[in-house]
Amino acid sequence: MTGLRRSGFFGSAAFAFGLFTAALATETAADTFKWITFKPQGAGDAQAISTQWFVDEFKKRTNGEHEIEVFWGGSVAKTREIPESLAAGVGDFGDVVTPYFPDKFPLNNAVGFFIPQPKSTIEISGLMEQWHATYPQFSQELAQNNLKAIGFRPLESYGLLCTSPVRSAADLKGKRIRTYGFAYPALVEALGATPVSVATSEAYEALERSILDCTPIGPALAHGWKYDEVAKFYIEIPLGASFGHLIAMNLDTYNGMDEGTRAVVDQLGHDYAKNYADELDATIAAVRDGWPEKGVEVIQFPQEELIAVIGDERIQSVRKEWLDRANAAGLPADDIAAELKF
Q1: Can you name the residues that pair with 67 across neighbouring β-strands?
Q2: Where are the beta strands (DSSP E) in the chain?
Q3: Are 174 and 194 in contact (CB under 8 A)?
Q4: What's the mean per-residue pLDDT of the chain?
Q5: Are residues 178 and 201 in the same domain?
Q6: Domain range spanning residue 179?
Q7: What does the alpha-carbon distance between residue 113 and residue 132 come to, in Å, rounded to a whole number?
Q8: How confident is the model over 259-271, as pLDDT tens digits?
Q9: Are residues 112 and 230 in the same domain?
Q10: Dihedral sign computed on CA atoms, order 251, 254, 257, 260
Q11: Which residues face 157 on adjacent strands?
């Protein structure tokens, strides 16, 4: 009887110890990664919604072994601080707004040099993913900054939001249009308008006070920034989807993941594009449905009049700048640029 009790005791102890070590192993293997972003959690837009989708899917697809904690609203790093913070390991995932860093990421800013272009949000996502898969120079540019692109978030297709009707290129003559980057100022000048540099946060007042006549923007952003309260004419001029954001990772974190987790991240980055685009399309549709009630008129711009100015030397000079850099990096620049032609 004593032997049985002792056997039961040691068996129970061994079982309990096994549970403890299994729990310890699970705890040790589990990781909580940090995502740093400038986007407020309560924004309720396509970016915020799809970021949460990514986080939820990551936990689900790793069977709860790993998860991501999002540090929203610039609480860890502001927009322009994210690449450096991410590279230093302050975060593991993060949103990098590439147009803010044209000198640091010139290859990954390719689309920004080719405005106007005819591609949609999901098409630009596909092109960026294709270029990264085909040409190592795109990834190497990021790797130099200890970053790895795991997903792509282009902005919506842009038109012009104006304070007065614009029905043709002739109506743009002399208009003061908000610009940024390289391609927009050249395009605005080629159309006979005047480029004006105004921060996004100041554009509402600039439109309201007639400092600006128009701003390039899409419906979702126009509504999000409430520009459609003071500018009531949305011009369907096909400027194309702007790029945009990289969903980036700290390269050391990515390389340090086990093969299975890396595979989850890679697939999620691919799947993310459709989830984001679907959310964005739903937002755009809702904004457009509500515009008649807000008194916003949508005007079709003759596409041929926009295409006619692409040959302007100012526009071509901007494009040549990217082509020269891409050729110097060993890329087939003309082949890549051909993907962005009307």
Answers
A1: 32
A2: 31-36, 66-71, 93-97, 147-153, 157-162, 176-179, 194-197, 214-217, 233-241, 245-250, 297-300
A3: yes
A4: 92
A5: yes
A6: 157-240+295-332
A7: 18
A8: 999 999 999 999 9
A9: no
A10: negative
A11: 241
